[in-house]
Amino acid sequence: QKEDIEVTLLPAGHCPGSVMFLFQGENGTVLYTGDFRLAKGEAARMELLHSGTRVKDIQSVYLDTTFCDPKFYHIPSREECLSGILELVRSWTSLSRYHVVWLNCKAAYGYEYLFINLSEELGIKVHVNKLDMFKNMSEILCHITTDRHTQIHACRHPRDDDYFRGNRLPCGMTCRNGTPLHVISIKPSTMWFGER
């Protein structure tokens, strides 16, 4: 049998381009989330989830369940995480220009919110290996750099943890003007957070 189905893509807030799928047809409405990260109240502002003044009737939700486990009962909001990271990075980088932070980001995308906010709040660009992966995200380009002489790094290397143990950054930097760097690592990861 044939049935016309309307498919609507809704922002998932997970990484650039991530979407949730809303399927609507004669037999009802289904929401498939995939990986998503929505702050409280964001779904209420999604006009396409509403019909007039009320939320559309959704018969089934296929929910990404990566964190459907009691150890993930409380995941801090994006704003709480940003506030804590900002406080830590600000206090560390203000000690001297030789105090640097390495953001140990395991995925290629999904940290743009963090990079932009750190750069805007602290006036420090974030070092990344290459700019080309961000070329279609114009809003981030003024917040990242390939210049290694910055205090915030999100550079990557196949053996990142080995580099950090040697008090050097994945890009290879160990000192600046002959003065050794003091490096701290921040791992912005919900999975890592939940496991601890």
TrEMBL record:
Residues 139-192 form the DNA repair metallo-beta-lactamase domain. GO terms for cellular component: nucleus. It holds the Pfam family DRMBL. GO terms for biological process: DNA recombination; double-strand break repair via nonhomologous end joining; interstrand cross-link repair; telomere maintenance. It is found in: Nucleus. Its main location: nucleus. Keywords: DNA damage, DNA recombination, DNA repair, Endonuclease, Exonuclease, Hydrolase, Nuclease, Nucleus. GO terms for molecular function: 5'-3' DNA exonuclease activity; damaged DNA binding; endonuclease activity. The keyword DNA repair applies. Belongs to the DNA repair metallo-beta-lactamase (DRMBL) family. PANTHER family: DNA CROSS-LINK REPAIR PROTEIN PSO2/SNM1-RELATED, PROTEIN ARTEMIS. This is Protein artemis. It comes from Alectura lathami (Australian brush turkey). The lineage of its organism: Eukaryota, Metazoa, Chordata, Craniata, Vertebrata.
